[in-house]
Amino acid sequence: MRERETLEKLIDEGTVAETLRKDSSARHAIAALQTVMHWLGFDRQLRWAEFGADGGYGPATVAAVAEFARRNGSTAKGERVTSVLASKIVARYDSLEELKQLAEDVADDRVEGRYRVGSGDRIRVAALQTLLNGLGFGAELNWAKWGADGGYGRSTRAAVAAFAVDEGLGGDGTTLTLPLGQRIVAELGPFYGDNWHDLEHEAAPAPGSLTVKSVAGRGTRQYLDVSDGFRRKRFQKFRRGLFTMGDQKPLTFVQSHGDALREIGVTQSELNVMLAVAENEGNLDAVNTWDNAFLSFGLFQWTAGQDSARGELPALLARIKHEDRDLFDKYCGQHGLDVVDLTPADWMTSKTGPLTGRFSLRGTTIKSPTDKAQLREAAWAFYFWRAGQDSAVQAMEIKHAVGRLEQFYSSDRYKVGDHLVSDLITSEYGVGLILDNHVNRPAYVRQCLAKAITRAGLPDPSGWGTEEERKLIAAYLDIRVTHGRSPMTDAEKRARVTKKYLDNGTISDRRGSFERS
């Protein structure tokens, strides 16, 4: 994680205290601190949903650092991060995955078979050793010599036994019992923030296990509180359904997972373009069950489809099912929701995969509006919202959103005369505008570009430079505002949002700046 490396570099250079302090101008370093604190679970103090990693060391960051200090035995007020406190933040981050892993095994009652003398699961044993060292049992582990070597031998047995004695529990250390595993999680959990455990390591809710409670708000507003025992979410009622705008921002996810996304073949340029469009659509955990598409989800608000039509949301879920069946079953399969007529072969011809599809519910294909109305139930709003908290699902959303470019950018279906869209528009800014058009009114893309070419008087793109493309884009933006029987929704406003990313340097309008994978 680059943010962790940024903190470690400051520690090594001895510049932590002068860099990570209230009102510092070192925005990059402060954003790295905020991102690490986010992953440690201090979203409430950071006011993460509102500010994210904004690089400003203001009251919210002060509060997060102060709370971390308190939980870790320090009286620091949070206005400055000392080298000692920064080292503790990095150490906690380094052991977070180990704690999540143990918490997952505790929740699933799989501790005693995996953490015992002679265990062949060296990764889990190494995680246990790291956690025990963090709890102060380095001497018993002979940490200086062995470290986290993954072997459950005499030293690890001695450390587990010593921990058991401290906790007033029996055992000779041969096995990490379930009660001991629970105590480790309970001991270390408070050192992190309120949501350190992260959603993907919680047990999935059993079908039918939700509790739903109506709540009256101000004026005529009505809400539903839905809980599965791990998480509780308040949805606002509207018309026939519910909605939440969500708080998992695509920008925050890309900032934290950019390297991982590039490893799966998504270019930085594609990410830039997607971000410039996503703000017009929704957050990664946005859910809506009230409009005429029955259920929409995610950063591009993929839907179940209007009336009896096929929808784009089944195609997203088909991708998840194809690439990570366990992830699909966790949020959909075990609740009886599946996709039909979408197979792994659909991914063999392009990165896009299928464009639309249908759901089945408890074995019956959902086609009619009456059938689709079942998706308005509070349970589905909750299941999709909860899936949107999972970083694995978020990564799938990003990948699927970027894959949409394949639908039109080099497709013969969208040719304007003899030219592909990729011949006409090659800047990140231009591609972002066309993607925005395609998400909102896909049928208008080719028509608007054709009119723009005529209006701009630029029939042959072979010799175009940046100025010619800018001229084409200006004509296109004017045309798309009023084009068609049902013009783009808020076309001018959407264009302003995309241009904001041009103005702040996220995307470029230089011809040739868009780079594809």
Largest sheet data? 7 strands, antiparallel
What general form does the structure show? globular
**Amount of beta strand:** 5-15%
Strand order of the largest sheet: 1-2-3-4-5-6-7
Question: Can you walk me through this structure?
Answer:
It is a single chain. The protein has 25 helices and ten strands. It has a seven-stranded antiparallel β-sheet with strand order 1-2-3-4-5-6-7, with helices on one face. It has 517 residues and is an alpha+beta fold. It has helices spanning 2-13, 16-19, 27-40, 43-46, 48-51, 59-71, 83-107, 122-134, 138-141, 143-146, 154-166, 178-188, 250-263, 268-278, 313-323, 325-331, 369-372, 378-387, 391-403, 405-408, 421-424, 428-440, 445-456, 466-480, 491-503, and strands spanning 211-216, 222-227, 232-238, 241-244, 287-288, 296-297, 302-303, 337-340, 358-361, 364-365. The protein is globular, with a radius of gyration of 26 Å. The protein folds into four domains: 2-89, no CATH class; 91-199, no CATH class; 225-248 and 283-403, no CATH class; 406-503.
